[in-house]
Amino acid sequence: MIETRLLRQFVVVAEELHFSRAAERLHMAQPPLSQAIRRLEEHIGYPLFVRDKRTVELTSAGMALLGKAHELLEALNEGVAYTRRVAQGIEGNLVIAVISLNYYPGFWRALGIFREQMPSVELSFIEATTREQVELLESGEADIGVMRCPGTTTPLLTIERLLFDPIQVALPSSHPLALSNTVRLEDLARESFVMSARALGQGFHDQLLALCKGAGFSPRIVQYARQIQTVLGLVAAGYGVALVPASFERSGLQDVVFRPLRHSASQELGSVALNIASNNAVISPLRDAFVEMVKRHA
């Protein structure tokens, strides 16, 4: 490997074609500079300069090396500058894993502000369930997760709440309770339910079961779906009712109505928390800047 110091010294000599002036530019004595150039020539195996008492000229090998040396040093300088910008949190790449966020306009507003302020940052998105996001964060395949509560211990992750999303009931538009302004949770005890599977989001699934248990019943689940959009499609088709975050009322899905629930549960149990998560074992100023931006604006 050729030291970058030797390359820089070679470039100055090639530009000056005079060892004394080159040594002056490099703030060093001429003999050590001459020795450095000889070491470089020995490493390459060919002379880089033709020297006599009056003149110094580049050989064909020297001319070839000069062009490549400029490219290498420029790339090195840019690499160092890029590294500094990444360390300062103003440039780089982030992989963000998200649940369905179509109906959380605050998140997209925060994303737009981040893009305006950090145009050099490249963002990549992975749609994933909460359970999948935990795995992606712990393995280092994602930098940030936007998820519901995992429902399991996650010692490697820092999880911060962004907002509470009240739980409502989604009903087929033909359902008798669709005529009510609000629905008592107890009135759903005999209904068929559509839910997402526990394996895809243990925390949310267990929360819904606990909410129903507090109202004195266990829901009779007749269909499972991976995404809440699919859950709502099954409700529209008449398969049952569903407990979903209120933000999904913005879906505009036909044949489904959303009604607030009346119950005595706490806010933590009666609402779904939307969280932002990261791996606390990884140091990333850029990731931290993104998290703070989303927390401030979402």
UniProtKB/TrEMBL annotation:
<feature type="domain" description="HTH lysR-type">
    <location>
        <begin position="2"/>
        <end position="59"/>
    </location>
</feature>
<keyword id="KW-0238">DNA-binding</keyword>
<dbReference type="InterPro" id="IPR036388">
    <property type="entry name" value="WH-like_DNA-bd_sf"/>
</dbReference>
<dbReference type="InterPro" id="IPR036390">
    <property type="entry name" value="WH_DNA-bd_sf"/>
</dbReference>
<protein>
    <submittedName>
        <fullName>LysR family transcriptional regulator</fullName>
    </submittedName>
</protein>
<dbReference type="InterPro" id="IPR005119">
    <property type="entry name" value="LysR_subst-bd"/>
</dbReference>
<dbReference type="GO" id="GO:0032993">
    <property type="term" value="C:protein-DNA complex"/>
</dbReference>
<comment type="similarity">
    <text>Belongs to the LysR transcriptional regulatory family.</text>
</comment>
<keyword id="KW-0805">Transcription regulation</keyword>
<dbReference type="Pfam" id="PF03466">
    <property type="entry name" value="LysR_substrate"/>
</dbReference>
<dbReference type="InterPro" id="IPR000847">
    <property type="entry name" value="LysR_HTH_N"/>
</dbReference>
<keyword id="KW-0804">Transcription</keyword>
<dbReference type="Pfam" id="PF00126">
    <property type="entry name" value="HTH_1"/>
</dbReference>
<dbReference type="GO" id="GO:0003677">
    <property type="term" value="F:DNA binding"/>
</dbReference>
<dbReference type="GO" id="GO:0003700">
    <property type="term" value="F:DNA-binding transcription factor activity"/>
</dbReference>
